[in-house]
Amino acid sequence: MNNKEFSIAIPQRFFSDVSDEPFENCNVCNKYLLENDVPYVVEKALRNYEGHDFSSTIYEFAICQDCHTKMQKSMSEESLQSLQKYYGEVMTKKGPQPIVLDMNNFDMDNWLSKCFFEGNEISDMKEYQIVAQFKGPQLIMNTPPIIIGETAMKQMAELLSEKTTDEMNGFRDQFLGPAPEIEELIYGKKLILI
Q1: Less crowded by CB within 10 Å, the N or C end of the chain?
Q2: pTM of the entire predicted model
Q3: What pLDDT is stored for residue 184 in this prediction?
Q4: Number of folded domains that form the chain
Q5: Which of 149-153's residues contact partners 24+ apart within 8 Å by CB, and which partners?
């Protein structure tokens, strides 16, 4: 079996909006992320504005693999099983063939123009999330980045137990803010960690 890792330089859409540079530190433990062997996840939630051709970031964070694993372990078994079942159903609908990317002709903008789960165009959504895995200064393409559209976000949020919802809200409150100017936008929204 071929375990070769495919990666590319971090695209600008995964940079922090605050610094306009790649995320340097884990939002939870402050570990430096841009070392070659440090695995981490970046997640951003974005909002589109009807009648305008731009979006703004509602929240963004980078979390190292160790902290991400701890966060997932804090999820209830019920929530994990429900999310795994949901993901399995989506993959079954996509068919038995594995997802294969031609790295010589790969178009990141095209790949990230639709919800991975539902296939809806992001231009037709009010909100969506973008998630990718990284190792140091590279985006790992073996697990390509995905868009989670608003329909999929709602479906996944409904699968979370009350315990998990409380954990996610606690994470958001402790590590993400909210900043006063966006508090109204995210108050009551459930954070989905993939």
Answers
A1: N
A2: 0.81
A3: 46
A4: 1
A5: 149/114, 149/115, 149/117, 149/118, 149/120, 149/122, 149/125, 150/125, 150/126, 151/115, 151/117, 151/118, 151/120, 152/115, 152/116, 152/117, 152/118, 153/127, 153/128, 153/129, 153/190, 153/192
